[in-house]
Amino acid sequence: MTADSNQRWHPDTALVHGGTLRSPFGETSEALFLTQGYVYDSAEQAEARFLNLEPGYQYSRFSNPTVTMFEERMALMEGAEVARATATGMAAVTAAMLCQLSAGDHVVAAKALFGSCRYVVEDLCPRFGIACTLVDGRDLDAWKAAARPETKVFFLESPTNPTLEVVDIEAVAAIAHAAGARLVVDNVFATPIWQKPLTLGADVVVYSATKHIDGQGRCLGGVVLCSKDFLDKHLQVFIRQTGPSISPFNAWVLLKGLETLSVRVERQTATAEAIARALKAHPAVAKVIYPGDPDHPQADIIARQMQRGSTLVAFEVKGGKPAAFRTANALRIVKISNNLGDAKSLITHPSTTTHQRLSEDARQELGINAGLLRLSVGLEHVDDLIADLTAALDASAARAAAE
Fold first, then answer.
1. What is the pLDDT of residues 210-236, one digit of tens each?
2. Strand, helix or coil at 155?
3. Distances (CA, A) of 283 to 196, 213, 378, 390, 393
């Protein structure tokens, strides 16, 4: 296979065949190379490998054939020049940020971030002399106003976790570049199926591969996608020396997940669209947020930068935390879990789980109210899921009325 032929493939084909390396045994499934190190034909060859004068593997903290296949397949799918896999999604975020930052630099980030991502920019970076400014990601003037001469990185996720706000990636990328900064985008909620941040001007894209890419609750993983120049100047040495490396076994599992990614995401998205409509009609629901909804506040931006909505639905139940807990506890098919992107439908209460470390004022500013629930739609039948959610909401409302 040549690079040119790979680039002509549709995404579904690339997700099955991209980056495949076959051993002399001619295996159909990708080989799993469970090895820490590699042997050399001679001392001269070892020297050449470490001087990067000869291609090949040296140590699985640096690279591994199974991991290479996953990285190349992700790069092909995303339209990136290169990719580097990491042990977790947060390892990908941390590596993508810290590899290019030094004391005295400045980061501008959207306020609406996953709790651990806010920790990296709000708590971790300042420990090392890297200042940060948090802005309303929807406000383009706020991005412009926050930029300084020492600003090196803009960081955002879109759609956001958990309120599914959407940020204009193309506009923010233009602001970042005008300020001499790079834009890093966490694309987990949109998935590479529905949104391509690199085509919108982003410089680096990160994923928690634990989510939709695995898609079946089996293992952890992350990936950073970027240019060859960024890899050579910043990311490669950081990963090599600090070691946030993915295990070959996890990379193999993720390769298997990529084969069905488009099928799963398309089905989950269609189901999420139907669930959002059903929830909007339920009297116990105060608010529904879904990127595929024409009533979404950023519907015009969504139409420009996303092919379809997310597999996630956020909804606020009337009655606050007690009603949210009653609803979640009454579900029979949907399981309570802070994970997402799984074949199983999962629900979480963000203000007491993923975003509990934020102050109450910060949660209210982001719209993370006590009645908010985040639903990750799985592969169950749409009618069964709607019936389960409706029954739980009905039971919660009935109990509240009885009390």
1. 999 999 999 999 999 999 999 999 999
2. strand
3. 36, 35, 24, 10, 9
Helix (H) or strand (E) holding 196, with range, is none
Closest by alpha carbon to 69, among 39, 103, 30?
A: 30
- pTM for this predicted structure: 0.94
Whether residues 19 and 59 share a domain: the answer is: yes
Residues 238 and 278 grouped into a single domain: no
Can you give the C-alpha Rg of the chain in angstroms? 22
**CATH classification at residue 297:** 3.90.1150.10
Residue in 155, 143, 83 with CA at minimum distance from that of residue 116 = 155
CA distance 239 to 325: 41
- Coil, strand or helix at 218: coil
Task: Say if residues 279 and 385 touch (Cβ distance below 8 Å).
Answer: no
The span from the CA of 271 to the CA of 266, in Å, is 9
Query: C-alpha angle 380/382/387, rounded to 5°?
Result: 100
Closest CA to 114 of 355, 370, 289: 355
Note the pLDDT tens digit of each residue in 294-335: 999 999 999 999 999 999 999 999 999 999 999 999 999 999
Task: Summarize the confidence of residues 98-105 as an average pLDDT.
Answer: 98
Stretch 2-26: mean pLDDT: 80
Element (H, E) at 389: helix 382-402
The residue whose two tokens read 């579900």 is 331
In whole angstroms, what is the distance from residue 256 CA to residue 16 CA? 8
CB neighbours of 195 closer than 8 A, spacing ≥ 6?
Answer: 158, 187, 305, 306, 307
Cα gap 332→202, rounded to integer Å: 41
Range of the domain at 374: 262-402
The contacts of residue 364 (CB under 8 Å, 6+ apart) are none
297-305 — which CB contacts under 8 Å span 24+ positions?
297/165, 298/138, 298/165, 298/166, 298/168, 301/166, 301/167, 301/168, 302/166, 304/168, 304/170, 305/166, 305/168, 305/169, 305/170, 305/195, 305/200
**Does 83 share its domain with 182?**
yes
